[in-house]
Amino acid sequence: GALGIVEQYCKDNGVELIAEGHSTNDKDFTAQIMKAKNAGVEAAIVWTHDPEVAIHARQISQLGLDVPILCSPSI
Predict the structure, then answer these.
(1) How does DSSP assign 5-73, residue by residue?
(2) How confident is the model over 28-62, as pLDDT tens digits?
């Protein structure tokens, strides 16, 4: 659904996309966040369920990923 739309938008507009997934009920997103941070991303899209969004928000702050975050209103 949403990933396909983002992928097409990025392709159409010459934007490099670094996509990272996770499983429902995951409790640690350090690897995904650090991959994005180390890649020097200019923005991040967090599209997941509310429980995982809360963990993402905390870990994004803790790990210092200081970029605009596009996501559901939950964050």
Answers:
(1) HHHHHHHHHT---------TT----HHHHHHHHHHT-S-EEE-S-HHHHHHHHHHHHHHT--S-EEE-T
(2) 999 999 999 999 999 998 888 888 888 999 999 99
